[in-house]
Structure prediction request, 269 residues.
Amino acid sequence: MSAPGDDTVRSGAPVSHRPLGILAALPQELGDLIEAMRAESGLRTITHGQRDYHLGTFHGAPCVVTLARVGKVAAAATVSALIHAFDVEAVVFTGVAGGVGQEVRVGDIVVASELLQHDLDASPLFPRFEVPLLGVSRFSANASLASQLAAACERFIAEEGAATAARFGTREPRVHRGLIISGDQFVASAAGVQALRDALPDALAVEMEGAAIAQVCHEYGVPCAVVRTISDTADDHAPASFVAFLTEIAGTYSNAILTRFLAARGSAA
Ligand code: ADE
Prediction:
């Protein structure tokens, strides 16, 4: 029998009542998650450090959902608040990214296994990309969370991939897993994306927040995972492609992925 306050069920599976932190940079990247939580449980919204943190449940799972805004500092500040003010048990970041890998196309999905800050360079004092005094350049995503996200993406593609591709005029989406790189730059030139490929040949996607979140989570021992839908290929067409994808498509992907991810977590709890 469980003692009062004991969070361990007899099957041995730990049951946590700490919330999951879910964040995106921009509202379009969250889809309808906040509205879905409002409908399921009602919402409590707490404003902290100029951001709104929405507390509720989705598929029975307690969540804190917020918008980080754009860039590494904004992301680090927001995830730090999720950890310290809201005691999240894990963090999931969702949003769009530019494709860097040669096989990564608009409409594909990238689930990070590792994250790196491509604009961090304290050489020759420290190796390029290494976070000084931490001794790490590549932060690992939590393997279990990343697999759960990838499985949710694969289910989405199996169930709705063809219809989604037809609706948006993209190829049928593919899921890639590997390195996501982050920096305080919107990469929008053939030369810029080629320079990233040359420096980091295994990079799949570029964005502006993920590795900052991964660093803070690493430092506090909080599991994290990042899923990104490819809105552009970081070349000269990137600004137009990004805006169109963000406006018309990003929410559909986030809804589809987060619903499946959270439903599976809810049924496993
Ligand atoms: N997010 C989406 N597309 C991006 C790009 N091309 N560069 C940086 N962040 C992005």
